[in-house]
Amino acid sequence: MATAGTGTAPTPSGNERPQFFARSALAMAAIVVLSFPVTYYFPVALGSGDFDTLHHVHGLAFFAWFGLYVWQTQLVARVLPSC
């Protein structure tokens, strides 16, 4: 009879896992926000960008989705440890 833990890496505790996803979501959000100034934010602010309405709707939908993703991971990280 083999031991279940033989040859396996230690698993993180229940509290570490939600924190990882919450932190990685914040890191991804920072990368996304910091990567668009040159190609989108500055041209829109200066009026030099040639963007139609569909581009703006697409960007708004993407950022709204990303905001919900970050919010969800933060909620799970806060609520889950108390379960």
Structure overview:
It is a single chain. The protein is built from 3 helices and no strands. The mean pLDDT is 82. The two termini are 34 Å apart. Helix 1 (16-35) runs antiparallel to helix 3. The protein has helices at residues 16-35, 37-46, 53-79. The longest helix is centred in the last third of the chain and has 27 residues, at 53-79. The protein has one domain (16-82). It is mainly alpha-helical and 83 residues long.
Radius of gyration, taken over Cα atoms and rounded to an integer in Å: 20 Å
Estimate what percentage of residues fall within beta strands: under 5%
- If you average the pLDDT, what whole number results? 82
Secondary structural class: mainly alpha
The low-confidence parts are none
The largest sheet is: none
General form = elongated
Portion of residues in helices?
55-70%
Which H/E pattern describes the elements?
Answer: HHH
Query: Tally the helices: what do you get?
Result: 3
The end-to-end distance, rounded to whole angstroms, is 34 Å
Total number of strands? 0
How many domains make up the coordinates?
1
